[in-house]
Amino acid sequence: QVQLRESGGGLVQAGGSLRLSCAARTIVVSMNDMGWFRQAPGKQRELVASITARSADYADSVKGRFTISRDITMNTMYLQMNNLKPEDTAVYYCNVVNKGSPVSAYWGQGTQVTVSS
Fold first, then answer.
1. Virtual torsion, Cα 66, 70, 11, 14, nearest 10 deg
2. What's the rounded Cα separation, in Å, for the pair 105 and 113?
3. What are phi and psi of 109, to 5 degrees?
4. For 65-115, what is each residue's pLDDT tens digit?
5. Neighbours of 108 (CB within 10 A)
6. CB-side exposure of 53: number of CA atoms within 13 Å?
7. What is the rounded CA–CA span in Å between residue 33 and residue 20?
8. Residues of 85-105 as b/e, b for ≥16 C-beta within 10 angstroms?
9. In degrees rounded to 5, what are phi and psi of residue 104?
C-alpha cells in the first residue's frame, strides 16, 4: 500500500519561509512524476508544483517563491516555500502525478500552512 506522509507545515508570518516534506513508503519518489497540491478553504485542490525526471514546473502564483526537489537517499520530496503570502494558506498534499492527474488512492492527510498578514 502506497503511503505518502506530509509534514513541515505551520503558522508563519507573511514573508516567512517553510519547507514541506513528503516521505514515501512502497514507491520510489525519484522514479515517479510527483507533485505538491494545496486546498484552501472553499476552493478546489490545485497543483502548485510538479517534478519529473527532466524538469520542475510551477503554478504562476508560486513561481519564483517555491522550489520542489527530491532526495533519492531519503526517498522524500520537498517543497521550499519562501516569501509566503496570506493567500498561500491551505492544506498542502503531495501525490504521484500519473498522466497529468493525481492518484486518488494516494492522498494523505496533508499538512496545514497558515500565513498571517
1. -20
2. 23
3. -80, -20
4. 999 999 999 999 999 999 999 999 999 999 999 988 999 999 999 999 999
5. 17
6. 3
7. 17
8. eeebbbbbbbbbbeeeebeee
9. -60, -30
Cell numbers that stand for 105 in this block = 488512492
User: Grid coordinates in use for 31?
Assistant: 522514479
pLDDT in tens, 34-61: 999 999 999 999 999 999 999 999 999 9
**Letter for the amino acid at 93?**
Y
Cell of 5: 506522509
Burial grade of 1 (CB within 10 A; 0-12, 13-18, 19 or more) = exposed
- Give the 3-state secondary structure of residue 105: helix
Query: Amino acid identity of 48?
Result: V
Cell 502506497 belongs to 2
